[in-house]
Design a protein that fits this description.
The complex is a heterodimer of chains A (about 350) and B (about 350).
Chain A: H1 2-6, H2 9-29, H3 37-45, H4 51-86, H5 98-111, H6 118-141, H7 149-173, H8 175-185, H9 194-221, H10 225-230, H11 235-257, H12 263-277, H13 284-309, H14 317-334
Helix pairs in contact in A: 2-4, 2-13, 3-4, 4-9, 4-11, 4-12, 4-13, 5-6, 5-7, 5-11, 6-7, 6-11, 9-11, 9-13, 12-13, 13-14
Chain B: E1 2-5, E2 21-26, E3 29-33, H1 35-57, H2 65-72, H3 78-113, H4 125-139, H5 145-166, H6 173-197, H7 200-210, H8 219-246, H9 250-255, H10 260-282, H11 288-300, H12 307-327, H13 336-358
Helix pairs in contact in B: 1-2, 1-3, 1-12, 2-3, 3-8, 3-10, 3-11, 3-12, 4-5, 4-6, 4-7, 4-10, 5-6, 5-10, 6-7, 8-10, 11-12, 12-13
Classes of the chains: A mainly alpha (about 350), B mainly alpha (about 350).
Membrane topology (chain A): Multi-pass membrane protein
Pfam families (chain A): FecCD
Family (chain A): Belongs to the binding-protein-dependent transport system permease family. FecCD subfamily.
């Protein structure tokens, strides 16, 4: 314990930040055409070796990497927030149907209402994410034993399959949209310009600020509703704030990279484990930022791996993360602490 | 000798309090004949036959319903006979058989786990078979017995994994379901990977199949499935009789002379086999295995999903779904899986609420 306490939380964050930075550089350097690291650094500093390198770095790789960092941070935060709000270790925007709600709303707005601009998508994504999240919560609360992790997860899964069926029904009747949808729905970072990142960023920043403002209240909420209320927390307000943050973070992310599952599930658990090693304990003022840095690390790593593994085609980052997240989900289900399972 | 009996049996009391039924006691056939179940089965059979013929009558060259029935019996002009028998019959047959297979398997798993949510398409068996079949398409062992064998391997492997991973001093309903969901996500992403890796042509073939599709089925698809259904459905019915004693609890069943583990293993294998062959022939048609047994159970007013009525409901759902998929939007042919998915998901939500309310899920 004494050794662990030497590792201060701030130092841990800086360390993870450094890892993220290295991954960012790798993400810019690696790809269909590799660029040596020194050339990458010179291009980033504004002294490129050639116009081609400059072009690839600034119009393709940097936006892709920035999108990975933004989306990863948003999903990590959203997952940590949902797990704290519902006190449910199985919570994740993908598992609880929030992502599917956003995805359905986007497909609906494009195919049925004929909307075209990304900004239009985003508002629909927020509406879909919010509606699906609230519905799943209400569904999970039905029945005798109230809200249990298992019931909430099953309600989310049922909602996800309903929305996914409806989404594919819409997409399949508009064949030209099918290819774009398939690419988007698997969760890919490829082929997005820098303007996409800039449009999403304000929403993600707003969501992140809201989330951080929740953190002290989440610590009391972890002790149970009654204790939190007696500590002077206004539960309704905290939940509303949390749901607003989850909606902003998930809706914005899904509108660009599709419904990525499991990132929000896996990361908070890793963050908690790390925090425990560092002697911090379950303090959400540290858990939320840790999740926000860890998640982009995993997303970028998955994206880089997806570019390298199956050349010449790319595997979408979302596919790889689901492949890793599945075993994790099963391990969580097997854990004895989940009394209801 | 048939006599009415008003007595109640342990298994029937939950949903049907003391209803009049007939006890058939003519050896070697003995059992309980409930008039409502018989009536429901007869009605389902008639409806299935009608929808089957309706499906065959539809196409580029519309053929009247009576002409279809005549052609099925072997009468009519050669042109009609050719269109009906060679071109349209395989599609309808695959739909019929896949519906039967999915539904019987669903009824089996739901009865065995005593949980309506634990159907093969919820616990990943369909996805496991799907991943194996897509691997076959993409990596190049397509058509014929190869795909069937692959589907079987995939479903068996998934079933084994679900069972092993959900095991922790016994298995409980909910843990099986959630572990199965986790596994089906892994299988789905593996499938996505294979589709992305495959060539354009193979990816299209895999995608068209993945939604659950009856377009362009041939006898090559129908025959292995027909053989599987002909062998496995009777096996299920025979083993299912032993299942009745299993529901009294393992100890009581063992005391009554049932070889508990052997029966359970046999039932698992027949259920998995049915799913595998149906998936290989028609793709993973969503929610049929989950919803059909539940619909049949409520139609028949039974306490457990009745196998024969479930089979007929499954066939009706798939054939009706295919009919709807072809007629809803003129000019486009939706895959049947989309229709069953859209109709089946609310059933899933409703079941979830019911199970929650009754507190019977876990």
């Amino acid at each position: 314990m004494t050794r662990a306490q030497g590792l201060r939380p701030a130092f841990l964050l800086v360390l993870l930040g450094a890892v993220l930075l290295v991954l960012c550089l790798l993400s810019i350097a690696l790809g269909a055409r590799g660029i040596p690291l020194d050339q990458v650094l010179r291009a980033l500093a504004g002294h490129p070796d050639s116009r081609l390198v400059d072009n690839v770095v600034w119009t393709v790789r940097v936006p892709r990497t920035a999108l990975g960092v933004t989306a990863g941070a948003a999903l990590g935060l959203a997952g940590a927030l949902m797990q704290a709000l519902t006190r449910n270790p199985l919570a994740d925007p993908g598992v609880l149907g929030v992502s599917a709600g956003a995805a359905f709303a986007i497909v609906f707005s494009v195919a049925v209402l004929g909307l075209g601009s990304l900004l239009g998508y985003i508002w629909f994504a927020f509406a879909g994410a919010f509606a699906a999240g609230v519905l799943v919560f209400l569904l999970g609360r039905m029945g005798r034993s109230g809200l249990t992790p298992v019931k909430l997860a099953l309600a989310g899964i049922a909602m996800t399959s309903l929305l996914t069926s409806l989404t594919s029904a819409i997409v399949l009747t508009a064949p030209d949209a099918l290819n774009r949808y398939r690419f988007w729905s698997a969760g890919s970072l490829a082929d997005q310009g820098s303007e996409t990142v800039l449009r999403v960023l304000p929403f993600v920043v707003a969501g992140a600020l809201l989330a951080m403002a929740c953190a002290p209240a989440l610590n009391s909420l972890a002790l149970g509703d009654d204790v939190a209320a007696s500590l002077g927390r206004r539960l309704g307000l905290v939940r509303l704030q949390g749901v607003a943050a989850v909606t902003l973070l998930t809706g914005a992310t899904v509108s660009v990279i599709g419904p990525v599952v499991f990132l929000g599930l896996v990361i908070p658990h890793a963050a908690r484990a790390l925090a425990q090693r560092a002697g911090i304990g379950p303090d959400h003022r540290w858990l939320l930022p840790l999740s926000a840095v860890l998640a982009p690390c995993l997303l970028l790593a998955a994206d880089i791996a997806g570019r390298m593994v199956a050349r010449p085609v790319e595997i979408q980052a979302g596919v790889l993360i689901a492949f890793l997240g599945g075993p994790f989900f099963i391990a969580m289900v097997r854990r004895r602490k989940l009394a209801e399972v | 000798m048939v006599r009415t009996s008003g007595e109640t049996r342990a298994g029937d009391t939950a949903a049907v309090p003391a209803r009049r039924h007939f006890r058939l006691a003519v050896p070697p056939v003995s059992g309980v004949l409930r008039p409502r179940l018989v009536a429901v089965c007869a009605a389902l059979l008639a409806a299935t036959f009608l929808v089957f013929c309706w499906g065959v009558s539809m196409g580029d060259v519309p053929i009247g319903l009576t002409a279809v029935m005549k052609a099925l019996a072997g009468q009519g002009d050669p042109g009609t006979l050719l269109v009906v028998r060679e071109l349209r019959l395989p599609r309808a047959l695959v739909g019929l058989l896949a519906g039967v297979a999915f539904a019987v398997s669903g009824a089996l798993f739901q009865t065995m786990t005593r949980n309506p949510l634990a159907s093969p398409d919820m616990i990943g068996l369909t996805e496991g078979a799907g991943t194996a079949v897509v691997a076959g398409i993409v990596l190049g062992w397509d058509a014929g017995i190869g795909v069937q064998a692959l589907g079987l391997t995939g479903a068996l492997a998934t079933a084994l994994l679900v069972y092993l991973l959900a095991w922790r001093r016994g298995t409980t309903g909910y843990r099986i379901i959630l572990v199965g969901i986790g596994l089906s996500w892994i299988c789905t992403s593996a499938t996505d990977f294979l589709v992305a890796r495959g060539g354009r042509f193979q990816a299209q073939a895999a995608l068209g199949w993945l939604v659950g599709n009856l377009n362009g089925r041939s006898f090559e698809d129908a025959i292995p499935l027909a053989v599987a259904v002909a062998v496995l459905v009777p096996a299920t019915l025979v083993l299912g009789r032993l299942l009745r004693t299993l529901q009294l609890g393992d100890d009581v069943a063992a005391a009554l002379g049932t070889r508990v583990q052997a029966v359970r293993l046999g039932l698992m294998l027949t259920g998995v086999g049915l799913v595998a062959f149906a998936t290989a022939a028609a793709g993973p048609i969503a929610f049929v295995a989950l919803a059909a047994p539940q619909i049949a159970q409520r139609l028949a007013g039974a306490a457990h999903p009745p196998p024969v009525a479930s089979a007929l409901t499954g066939a009706l759902v798939v054939l009706g779904g295919d009919l709807a998929a072809r007629t809803i939007i003129p000019g486009t042919e939706l895959p049947v899986g989309v229709v069953t998915g859209v109709l089946g998901a609310p059933v899933l939500l409703w079941l979830l609420i019911r199970v929650n309310r009754a507190g019977s899920g876990g």
